[in-house]
Structure formats: structure tokens, C-alpha cells
Design a protein that fits this description.
six-stranded mixed β-sheet
Length: 423
């Protein structure tokens, strides 16, 4: 569903989705009265009952997003606690989206509706970077407001029932962690079959526009797709590698699907393309992220604990190994992968220097879900700041995207030439 923004952009959560035909007719869309944030809660006041709501957290930059169905944006917003700013925008035909930009780690741990669905209170808890990254990769939570008297909950819910007037408790239903969809069609691979494969990932897409530039309303999802295509074309023109794109259209993919596509294709390198945003309009320049040590350990444990361990990692079938051996194999493989990723990040920085604006401390490490394939060298390339007028113009120009593509293609060719020489 498309989102039409007024004064805010979004970048990547905990999500709530709620739908009940027992509520007021969708004919008349009502509005948000107020959004108030304190240290331990988010209170959203509405002038009529919400028909549906969803909330999710997103990383890089860190945000909490709340979608409301049957409710239009409006009213005042007051930030507080870990929330730096609150923004509202139109979502689809008859809904709204609230984005809460975080100044420090925080996540929604629960919540409830009151006043017949006219007030939604979400419990807010401070968390460290590791916990927030885990929340950003999690699935949705559902919150059920009180239906109208005598309403029948649709049979599609967990249990159809007649709700009594005295029932006021809100049921919180956990939703499984978002995972890559089974049977997701693989993208086309271009290039000679004997060449190593590079997968280019255009960040965001579909209902997630990413950051929104205050300079002309440029959307991150559009610019990342254009830049990814420019990188693909430059790599194919060089003829040294094969190339695939996780998406070549305005399509939403969950984070796990992005690196899962690259793994299924047997890629040798994964490059996720993004645009940055900051409160400081003077912040500019590109940066390159690789996975941190902390994230490595957690992802290794998660992968080792999976019920279905039939994944092939570095030529070893984990399904035939004990849990301890699986964990060790994954850890060793991922540490080697992290070293190779860091090496490519430094190489890309060297090739980009003087070609595109680059931050002095361009190589950074973060616990980013999209980088967590344990056996696939991966980087996240923040190509510039949409909040900076000069960077935004550069990223929106053909010349600017060609310069980025030139830097990447040169780094990729050198990277694989070194690997071949080392054999």
C-alpha cells in the first residue's frame, strides 16, 4: 500500500496489525487527535475508534512506525523520552502513518486500546543496540480493542465469540518473526556463467519508502533502485562478474529475504545500497557498513539453533553435525566472512576517494540484519545524505550515480582479482 507523506520521511521494528469488521463503518475516515510520548509509553488519542493498526521498528536510522487504518493524520505531536521527533503522514486511501525517530534505543513491549478504541497506549522500554537490532528483525504484535456491544468477532480470528459489554481487556497476540517467504522467485542473473556472482540490493521499496529528502521530497527507495541499476550496468560492462539484483522494481522485501536471495543464488559478494539521513543538514558523504562482532555471535547462535539445519555452509551440511560443532563451524565461517567484508569495505573506500564525497571515518560496523548471512561477504553502502541538499542533488543525478557505480565496479574487479591471485 502506498504511503503519501506530509512532513515526514521514514527509514527501518515492531508492528501491530489489527483488523475487525465489528468496528464502526469504514465510510468516514476520522483523525488523530494527539500523539504523546513519555519515557515509558506512547499514547495515541483518536477522535473515533481505529479499525486497524500496525507498528514496526526499523534500523538505520532507528525508528518506531505505527500505522492506523480508518484514521487520517492530524492533531498535535509531542516527542519525549527516547523519541526525538514524531511525524505523521497519509497512508493509502483511508489511513495514516506515525513515525517516531529515536535518539536512543527503545522498543515497544506491549500495549492496549481503551476508550472503545479511541486511545492506543504502547509500552516503551529502553534497550541497547543489540536488543534493538533484534527487535528490528522481529515480526508483528497484534492489539485487539474492545468491539461494539454484541458484535461477532469474525471466524477468521483465533476464536469467534460474542463480546460482552463488560469485556475491556486487550488481547496481545504475538506474531512469528518475519522470515523469507518460501518459493520467492529468484531474480535473473546476467553475465558469463564462469564469473563470480555479485548481488546488488536496492534498499527499501514498496510500502517502505526509506528516508525522504526535505529537498524536493526525493525517496530513498527510488534512488537506491536507480543507483543499483547503475552499479549493475557498470559491472556488466566490465565483463568480470555476473550480476543479479534483489529487486528491479518498486517491491518490498523483508530483510532476511534480501540476503537469502543472494545465498540461494550462490553469490560471492552482496552489496546493499542505501541513502543516509541526519538531523544535521551539513552531514554529508558516503559511508560503508560491515557486520559487528556482537551481531556475528548472536546470528551464529540463531542459525545453529534452527530446527531445520540442512543449510550447506562452506561445503559442510550442518544437519549432520552436533549443535556444538554447528555453532563452531558457523562462528569460524562468519569471522572469516566478516574479515573479507571489512577488506572489501576498505577497498571500496580507497576506490571511491576522490570520485565521490566520502566521510573521513567511512568504514563503520553495525548490527544490521541485511548483513547477517554468515558465509557471504556483505556491505551496506550509504551513498550519501538525503538530508543534505548537495548530496541529494548528486544522488538524483545520472552523473552522481555513474560516479558511485565506477567506484563500486573498480573495487569489485580488484577484489576478485586478488582472490584469484591468492588461489
Amino acid at each position: 500500500m502506498a504511503v503519501r507523506w506530509t512532513s515526514f520521511g521514514i527509514g527501518q521494528a515492531v508492528a501491530l496489525t489489527l483488523s475487525c469488521s465489528a468496528f464502526a463503518s469504514p465510510a468516514a475516515a476520522q483523525r488523530i487527535d494527539a500523539v504523546e510520548v513519555a519515557d515509558d509509553r506512547i499514547v495515541i488519542r483518536l477522535d473515533s475508534p481505529a479499525r486497524a493498526a500496525s507498528s514496526f521498528a526499523m534500523a538505520g536510522p532507528d525508528r518506531i512506525v505505527v500505522d492506523l487504518e480508518g484514521i487520517r493524520p492530524g492533531g498535535r505531536s509531542a516527542a519525549g523520552g527516547a523519541v526525538r521527533t514524531v511525524r505523521q503522514g497519509v497512508r493509502g486511501e483511508n489511513g495514516s502513518r506515525i513515525v517516531l525517530d529515536l535518539s536512543e534505543g527503545a522498543m515497544v513491549t506491549g500495549g492496549s486500546f481503551a476508550d472503545g478504541g479511541r486511545r492506543l497506549t504502547l509500552d516503551l522500554r529502553p534497550v541497547d543496540a543489540r536488543r534493538f537490532a533484534r527487535a528490528a528483525g522481529a515480526g508483528r504484535m497484534r492489539f485487539q480493542p474492545q468491539p461494539v456491544v454484541g458484535a461477532i468477532v469474525p471466524a477468521s480470528s483465533s476464536a469467534a465469540m460474542v463480546v460482552d459489554r463488560r469485556q475491556r481487556a486487550t488481547a496481545t497476540v504475538p506474531v512469528p518473526v518475519a522470515r523469507a517467504r518460501r518459493g520467492l522467485p529468484l531474480p535473473k542473473v546476467a553475465g558469463d556463467a564462469d564469473r563470480p556472482l555479485v548481488v546488488i540490493d536496492a534498499g527499501h521499496g514498496g510500502h517502505d519508502p526509506g528516508a525522504i529528502s526535505p529537498h524536493g521530497g526525493l525517496r530513498e527507495k527510488d534512488l537506491t533502485l536507480k543507483t543499483a541499476r547503475a552499479i549493475r550496468d557498470a559491472l556488466l560492462a566490465g565483463g568480470r562478474v555476473r550480476v543479479a539484483m534483489t529487486r528491479d522494481r518498486d517491491q518490498f522485501l523483508v530483510l532476511q529475504e534480501r540476503y537469502a536471495i543472494a545465498r540461494r543464488l550462490g553469490a560471492s559478494l552482496f552489496i546493499s545500497v542505501h541513502c543516509d539521513s541526519a538531523d544535521n543538514p551539513d552531514a554529508s558523504g558516503a559511508s560503508i557498513y560491515t557486520l559487528s562482532e556482537v551481531a556475528s555471535d548472536r546470528e551464529a547462535a540463531r542459525l545453529a539453533a534452527r530446527e531445520n539445519k540442512a543449510d550447506i555452509l562452506a561445503g559442510v551440511d550442518l544437519g549432520r553435525q552436533s549443535a556444538d560443532i554447528s555453532s563452531i563451524l558457523i562462528d569460524l565461517t562468519q569471522r572469516e566472512t566478516m574479515n573479507e567484508s571489512a577488506g572489501f569495505a576498505r577497498l571500496l573506500g580507497r576506490e571511491a576517494k576522490g570520485v565521490i564525497p566520502l566521510k573521513s571515518n567511512y568504514h563503520r560496523m553495525a548490527s544490521l540484519m541485511v548483513l547477517k548471512a554468515p558465509d557471504l561477504p556483505s556491505i551496506l553502502f550509504e551513498t550519501g545524505y538525503l538530508s543534505n541538499e548537495g548530496d541529494a542533488k548528486r544522488l538524483d543525478s545520472v552523473e552522481g550515480r555513474k560516479a558511485i557505480a565506477k567506484s563500486v565496479s573498480q573495487a569489485v574487479e580488484i577484489h576478485f582479482a586478488r582472490r584469484m591471485a591468492a588461489r
